[in-house]
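My current task is to audit a protein record that another person submitted. I need someone to confirm that the token line plausibly describes how this chain folds. Take the sequence as given and treat only the tokens as open to question. This is what I was given:
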Amino acid sequence: MPPQRNKSRLHQTFSWRTFLTGLSVATIVFSLLVTFPNALSFLDLKISDLRMAARGARPPTNRVIVVAIDQKSIAELGHWPWPRNLMAQLQDALASYHPKVIGYDLLFSEADTDITERAEISSRLRQLGFRETQLNQTLGLDNDEKFAAAIKRQGNTFLGYAFAEVRMHRRIITPAPGYLNKAIDPPPMSYQLIFRAPHSSAEILHARAYLPPIPVLNSSARGTGFYDVDADADGEIRGELTVIRFHDRMCVPFFLAVAQAFEDDQPLRLNIDSVGIRTVNLGETVIPVDEMGNMLVTFRSAAGGFPHVSAVDVLRHRVAAVELAGKAVLVGATAQAIGDRAVTPAGAEFPRVEIHANAIDDVFGRDFVNRSKLLTLDIERLWAVALGVGISAAVAYLTAPVAFATVLALIGAYVGYAQYELVYEGILLGIVFPVAVGLGTSSVLAIYRYWTEGLEKRRLRHAFEHYLHPDVIAAVVDNPDGLKLGGERKIITILFADIVNYTGLSERTDPAALVALLNDYMTKMTDLILESGGVVDKIRGDGIMAFWGAPLEIPNHARAAIDSALAMLSELKILRERDPRFADIDIGIGIATGEAIAGNFGGARRFDYSVIGDTVNLASRLEGLTRQFKVHLLVSKESFSAAARQYVARDIGLVRVKGKTLPVPIMEVVAAAGDGADSSYYDRFAEVLDGLRSGATEAASKALEAMRAERPDDGVIALYLDKLTELAGTPAGELVFEFDTK
């Protein structure tokens, strides 16, 4: 199984170059966004809509209700617009429900359609000698006068008007037909209390002409306010304007005029400082606005979801008294055919009367959200700086995965903080500006690290890949401290492999041919070792030294080593069948598992990553003993047990190798279980060995003789029979083989 890198390292050597590059990138992104603030405004608006929706449903206060001129009302009462006498009946019907205040989100800038007919009749009657008193008695009031009279009787009704053009900077314009550049009496409602900061010259949204209700209706209403709203950069309406300057008046909007009347005419105060509108106050209530005077609206529902009743049901008294009594009633058109609709975050076909209704409900519920740059800009810029510096430091100091996680955590921290401020403090901080600085910095740094630091690592890897195992290279490149001299104790598995009778082979083979043969042999063998996660430590002549378990941990290094050795033997068999040069080539392999010191050994200027220790010596001795036992693969009993896998193998017993005092139990491994090798022969040997250890020497000798007859070339059987001959009939017990040479 391939090795896994050590994941415990979280940081690297701090790179000042990376850190300063990050600061430069953050500064550039910061400066660009400050210079071009509208570059990402569209995205910020859309994200803000999602965040506003994520706050959860905001139920209405049930103090505002819309009387809708809807499809049902038009179907029963006729097409829109209705004659003013019908509007007078509706006004009287509304008054009978005793609402606290009534507001019409309808323009009454033209006289009723029956006025022409009345003028013709009046002219004829005058020609016949009728006096004015007689004319009034004969014709009665016209429709507009009836509607005006009904408004006066109710006494707390507000009408609205529209401005011709609203701009930040003043300029002379020619009013459109019907628009007036001077206010008629009574003039539009305006702020009576205005507090302007000293030396303030802030420009206020300005209008040069307006379209008021016709005089008879204008004079009958409690007051008039403007309907105009200001769409954001994407064309959607998210707020209500709270002030527009018209001549020398700071005019009050329709929604705020209705809200003030409902709240018992608490004083309205406008606060202006050097950069624009600071706040609007209704009594003690502070209404947060941006510097343009725009109040952000919290939409309670999608179109048609605000509490409403049909106008025809009011007119015919089919509405329960409790529905309208004591409430702020807004009369407006919601029918699709009328077209008085706008695009909002709550829907693309949103009735404008419901925009005003939601704004009034925000005032009643004190459910405000402040998105003024006067409040939020400094916070956004401070976070942008913090993200730029923090991300630069993280990428310069932390490893790539940890740095990536840190970048996400830092950006997530700001997003979480911004959402907390929105939900619990009612402050709408911009998300895009700080996050853009953070993402821009991290993205450029990621590319920078890949092409600079990554380029340096690739150069080092390329320089050493012909000499070291890729994982050793990775460990050194990723951790330059790994180039220091020293080592650490680790439990590892070591393999030695040599070609049998290499000296004779070299004597009878041309040197050039021998080199070619060795290169082909080493390529095949070392590839198998590397594929199993092993490290090829040394190649000396015909010998290979490899180890598993350092510098990187693998799940079962003993099993990996034994499986690799068996693969090497299988590969050699294939080479013998396919390549005549390998016909007489045989190898011996020794494997041992135990504690060793793994690390860099050598001098300060030249060293090698290797392993040293008694386990290394044991593996080397076991490889040499393959000649004595005439087997291909010997492994220590500790390696065999640690592998924890079924093999076709036999327990050879104890050997006392050169350089060790205590005997070592060893195993011959022939093949992995299930690979087609017959295990019955080795099972019989195990039974013989059990008999020897129990003292049945004579029976064991006979069994061994029978096995030698079956396999005359079995070196293990031959050594056991020779040992029993030395004992001359003495009970054998546990035999110990001892060899003076490697």
